[in-house]
């Protein structure tokens, strides 16, 4: 199954963005956005997204923004999040300025080419950001966007001029509780087909169902147990199995369990 990605901006989304210089370059400036820690923790615990942080840090590594001043607050932020079960598949930090027009800078896709290779479900993936350029990044990736608040101070704003991003923005909101509710409201359903020399199995599973089941494995007691799993688990479950029952029952049971798992 293809993985879904939750792309997340940093400043103005996970942590507050200082209005005076837009740089979190000291521990005194590090402050989490309300609800960010709990919501990200719940996303990692309850939903099936891989998290990727994508952030522009203008001039990082220059005299005006030394790398060491960035690293301390960044590592503390990551440690706090990891303590709540938040782990990142990748952290992408671009150091260029807007005027550089670098392909590596969000909303361009120079640093995220690995997610365009077909093994990821971009249609079901989401970008969370506080700027319209984050929404343009989502459009460029072919995923949906969630706009948290809205920063009017966007040095790359000319990139979105004249672009209709209404079909990309799935949610405009003011807090992380709205983001979490939106992501949890998405259907959690899948269809799995597993064919081997011994069995042919098709399973349809909806975790947000109401306990409706339709089971046919050829083994009545196994059908009953799977039916109970659906009914008592509150999930909709359809299972159709053709197995080599004339030889033995264990292939049917084992392969069904593998497909369901």
Q: Summarize this, please?
A:
The chain is built from six helices and ten strands; from the N terminus they run βαβαββαββαβββαβα.
Overview of the structural elements:
The chain is of the alpha/beta class and 261 residues long. The protein is 28% helix and 23% strand. The chain has helices at 36-46, 67-83, 132-141, 176-185, 220-233, 250-260; strands at 4-8, 49-56, 90-94, 126-129, 144-148, 169-173, 189-195, 199-206, 213-216, 236-243. A 6-stranded parallel sheet has the order 3-2-1-4-5-6, sandwiched between helices. Strand 9 (213-216), helix 5 (220-233) and strand 10 form a beta-alpha-beta unit. The longest helix is centred in the first third of the chain and has 17 residues, at 67-83. The two termini are 12 Å apart.
Tag the structure with descriptive keywords.
single chain; 261 residues; alpha/beta; 6-stranded parallel sheet; 4-stranded mixed sheet; 6 helices; 10 strands; 28% helix
Gross geometry: elongated
Give the integer mean of the pLDDT values: 93
Instruction: State the low-pLDDT regions, or none.
Output: none
- Percent of residues in helices comes to 25-40%
Strand content: 15-25%
List the helices and strands and how they pair.
Blueprint: E1 4-8, H1 36-46, E2 49-56, H2 67-83, E3 90-94, E4 126-129, H3 132-141, E5 144-148, E6 169-173, H4 176-185, E7 189-195, E8 199-206, E9 213-216, H5 220-233, E10 236-243, H6 250-260
Helix pairs in contact: 1-4
